[in-house]
Amino acid sequence: MTEPVLSVHNISKTFGAVKACDDVSLDLRPGEIHAVIGPNGAGKSTLIKQICGGLKPDAGRVEFLGRDVTSLRTSARAQAGLARTFQVSELAMEDTVLQNVTLGALAAGGKGPGLFRAALKNTGLRDRAMSALMRVGLEDHAAIRASELSHGQRRLLEVAVALTLNPKAFVMDEPMAGMGAEGSKRMTGFLDQLRAQAPILLVEHDMDAVFALADRLSVLVYGRVIATGTVEDIRANEEVRTAYLGEGA
Amino acid sequence: MNRENLINTILLLALATVPLWAMANDAPYTITLATKVAIFALAGVGLNIALGLGGLVSLGHAAFFGIGGYAMGILASHAQNFEPIMQWPLLIEGSKSMPVIWITGVIASGLAALIIGALSLRTSGVYFIMITLAFGQMLFFFAISWPAYGGEDGLSIYIRNGFPGLNTLLPIHFFGICYTLLALALLFSAKLAKSPFGLALNAARQTPARVEAVGLSPYRLRLTAFVISGMITGLAGALFADLNRFVSPSMFSWQTSGEIMVFLILGGVGRLYGPVAGAAAFIMLEHFLGGLSDYWHIYLGVLLLLVVLFARGGIIGFLAGRQVAHD
Question: Does B212 touch chain A if contact means CB atoms closer than 8 Å?
């Protein structure tokens, strides 16, 4: 078995009396999409924050590319190649689409953001930003403001920003959230190819997308992973059926 | 050339033309007013980097304005009294040279901004406003109770400081210095806004979580912006003290911070020439309305209310329309 790119070892986090994350372990292997599903309040957001930074687990550790990143800042993890997308689009709405992707390309350039040369005239940055836009099919919208994009286009822009980072792994928080059936299908097709570039930890509510994409699934309920396995394993799992998928699944 | 650039050019030319006209017509007070506009605009260019680009509502920029002013006051008073500032371990003498005073003022206000910013930027929103206000007030009361440099009465400098090759006693020469520094600051500010740093800072104002997620630190971006902002406002303070040949603790007062912010809002927050338009409008209002009534601030208040309610982009926004997003 190949070494996992990202692995979470027995992390726990409590807020007062609530165990938001209870001894969670999971890993992400090269080339796979590992989906995390669970009902609302299962601790998915808490888990993402502990993986990507911003929230330190009470116990356990997070390893990325064989390195312990548990106490690294969000920005340091991003520099190491951990790219995330947000459930609610985090974009600079007053800026253009191109400026938004250029922001990602800046940090990936290695050096800090310079004070003098114009960002959008730097061909290195621009090429990198444009190629990310082309991959998600937004290159014709480069010059318009992010606030003028449709919801679905904003979701794609989120992914484009992540693409500029030279990612070694993606963590995606509900990339299909709020997308129509058509948009969802398009995103599913796109993520399907993306796993060849870097593995994806996919937190998603859209079950059609999850079952179509995931190589493995982990089911999170009340902060605990109650099952991990292939789509077939999970579909057949009794505990998962009662806890989450319901009778019809 | 788009409309905003056209308006900016007209503004900058008008600011240069008025004192030249005044010189031809022997109206030195008008030159002083234009100089005051240039200096206030410079202070506003400084605040605009923190407030407009970085979204940092600092009510403590009087701290940097005052530090610049006292840099001038302290250096020049030692020079005019022929007393060194310090004799041990190394001899530091006062100075009547503007470049020396500017560099000292800019460095001192930059250091102050680094310390104030490093502490204040750990908070945000109304707490940030309050903590910057508190730092400004600390310096205000410190200046009041520092007898060595005039305390409450402030410091008078008898002769305006010199600049190599110019006669700074001529109002038009001193105006030329202030105008040139303003133009340089505007140029720098325009470059900064388009630089990668400006792009990232602008994004950190709108979506800090995204900026972190691409591997940049919003805190560091803001601190850098705050220091640059403080340095420019400090330079304006040194010039303002030289204009009046007088420094007093009132430069540190919260009213000063408020005034800089008021005319920035009046001119257009985040617009490159917002501070120029705002400072010009502010000085003209003060001059013309102040002549009519001692209570001219009432009209200023009404105007500010109208701007905030109906013209969010200030004067520049009103004339030039919405900011062009790309180029």
Answer: yes
Q: Using the predicted structure, report yes or no on whether residue B132 has a pLDDT greater than 80.
A: yes
Pick from B207, B214, B323: CB nearest A104: B214
Could you tell me the pLDDT band of residue A249, with boundaries at 50, 70 and 90? very low
Domain end call among A166, A194, A224: A166
> Which residues of B, range 133-192, sit inside 8 Å of A by Cβ?
191-192
CATH number of B3-320: 1.10.3470
**A-B contacts (CB, under 8 Å):** 111
Task: Determine whether the interchain pair A108/B203 forms a contact, defined as Cβ–Cβ distance below 8 Å.
Answer: no
Other Cβ atoms within 10 Å of A76 Cβ, number: 15
Residue A126 structure tokens: 């621009």
ipTM of the complex: 0.88
The C-alpha atoms of residue A82 and residue A170 are separated, in whole angstroms, by 6
Q: Where are the beta strands (DSSP E) in chain B?
A: 155-156, 246-247
Residue A74 has its nearest CB partner, among B206, B213, B221, at B213
CA distance B205 to A84: 19
The 10 Å CB-count burial string (b at 16+, else e) for B93-121 is ebbbbbeebbebbbebbbebbbebbeebb
Residues of chain A in Cβ contact (below 8 Å) with chain B: 52-54, 73-76, 78-79, 83-84, 86, 90-96, 98-100, 102-104, 106-108, 113-120, 122, 125, 143, 145, 161, 164-165
- B142 SS3 class: helix
Look up the domain containing A240 and give its range: 1-81+168-249
CATH of residue A4's domain is 3.40.50.300
- Last residue in a domain, options A166, A189, A218: A166
Same domain, A152 and A173: no
Q: What is the pLDDT of residues B11-47, one digit of tens each?
A: 999 999 999 999 999 999 999 999 999 999 999 999 9
A95 plus A127 within the same structural domain = yes
Please report, for residues A40, B84, B95, B156, B247, the alpha-carbon distance to residue B162 in angstroms, rounded to integers and kept in the order given. Answer: 70, 19, 10, 16, 17
Is residue A86 in some structural domain? no
Which amino acid would we find at residue B324?
A: V
Of B195, B210, B221, the CB nearest to A90: B210
